[in-house]
Amino acid sequence: MSKEEIHDIQMRNTRAWEDVRSRKGLEGAVNSEKYPDHDKLIESIMDLVGGNIEGGRDSMHAREMLDDIISDLDQLRNEIATPEEYLAEGLL
Fold this sequence. Notes:
By secondary structure, the chain is mainly α. It is built from 4 helices and no strands.
């Protein structure tokens, strides 16, 4: 694989993470930064995981991809409300 192809893959991965971080597609959710809509959050999780897989498929060992996915999901989890916070806000 050429350096250019590896760079393109890494850029796709970066864009996928930036899309999730910026919550593209979460418009219309109540306080979408902390309280994203259930379906939109699932879409974001799928985009994040898929972006990591596509971005690393040809340039990373599967264990490295898994580490990146776990790290990104952990960051996302820390940015959104807990189920208890959703309940306290009357969103469940």
